[in-house]
Design brief:
It is a single chain. The protein has 15 helices and 18 strands. With 485 residues, it is α+β, with helices and mostly antiparallel strands. It folds into 2 domains: 140 residues, OB fold (Dihydrolipoamide Acetyltransferase, E2P), CATH 2.40.50; 261 residues, Bira Bifunctional Protein, Domain 2 (BirA Bifunctional Protein, domain 2, 2-Layer Sandwich), CATH 3.30.930. The strands form 4 sheets. An 8-stranded mixed sheet has the order 6-10-11-18-17-16-15-14, sandwiched between helices. β2 and β3 form a beta hairpin. α6 crosses α7 and α11 runs parallel beside α12. The relative contact order is 0.09.
Amino acid sequence: MASIEELRDTRINKIELLKSAGMDPYTAECFRTHTIKEAIDGFELISSDNEEITLAGRVMSLRGQGALIFFNLTDGSETFQGLLKKGEIEENLFKLFVDAIDIADFVEITGTLFKTKTEQKTILIKKWRILTKSLQPLPEKWHGLQDNEERFRKRYLDILTTKELQDLFIKKAKFWEVTRNFMKDNGFLEVETPTLEVTTGGAEANPFKTHHKDFDVDVFLRISVGELWQKRLMAAGFPKTFEIGRVYRNEGSSADHLQEFTNMEFYWSYANYKDGMKLSQELYQKIAEEVFGTTAFETRGHKFDLGGDWPVIDYRDEVLKQTGIDVLKSSEKEMSAKLDELEIKYEGNNRERLMDSLWKHCRKNVGGPVFLVHHPKLVSPLSKSCSDNKELTERFQIIIAGSEVGNGFSELNDPIDQRARFESQQKLIERGDEEAMMPEWDFVEMLEHGMPPTCGFGFGERLFSFMVDKPVRETQLFPLMKPKD
């Protein structure tokens, strides 16, 4: 079997054959009259009129010999069968095709449509020309892309040769399209907020850091979709805004986590967390029905149904039920001991991290969908406190298959309370907590000017990965890869 290098050399030689025949192997011009899908959809009319049409695409298979050459052509819209037949095309063009064309080449073909004896829709080719000559074969020639790392490095080949993967990304595009349309239909204005920030805000995560040469200051890639910026827009008088965009978190990778991903966040003035729960449930159900045609899913060993009303569970009550720890009353020593007993790895021994580690252990046992509500204030530095218990907040998370796939709350708009919480976060940073939220004092000043009661909510592409039951890395077109040595 010839090596890749030998196959490449052979194909380079075929470039000279094409040039000698007067064909540009890398032309910029294409004169197709129909996409392949248009040819299929209009087949009966086009074939009955014996109309000549021109198609273009990549050769995906070649078979036959002698006087008949069959091949499959794809252009991204559909696949179609082509036939070269001696006597129906100039002899020199027939021979050049046999001698110079390989699987993976892009060609333009002109001919008439007909059905074979097996009722296969086909184009009988009268003439053809090269559009792009490929120098390397498709994966089938060397037994496919078996190695996962190679699949991600050569994602273009993985997508080209895997119909399921093509369908996945079409579905993902619709996922965000339905989301965008839903928000607009509910009166939300789509906005764009900065991706470079002097201070990261809106989440607890380790950011990517770079340097702004013109201002001579360090800046960070955002870790949320403009949370603190969109809340400024509430103060500016916009009643409803949303943004779909990329966020960046300089943290580890897992089946549910990446360093770069897409999130959506909305902010809704004169609304609270209960309004947000209702709207987010409607959104998830809309996505399920329009993108997947069902509300029932199975992922990560859990079955869940997004239809109907979702139960509500309380953060403090759930942790107490599963672990016997009261996150408001138990000491740090008791929390640490329980984590050690449960053999849970955790970083940091401050109360916030211990509390969060206990909840994440409990979360794995929640199949959902459920709304988790009333997070402690310590783990919710941007949430409004509950009126009946100031240590808890008007926050909700959507839990599915043991994971959080949506987060929202009644936004804290008390500038004095917000300043105090930021000061608490600053102390955590000074103690070495890399995930504590950076204080944003300009944001506090904005609150002093006044922000209306507001509900904020966000979710990311993790939800899509759960709905298709794939690791989130598999659902990204081009996940970041470590360079080869």
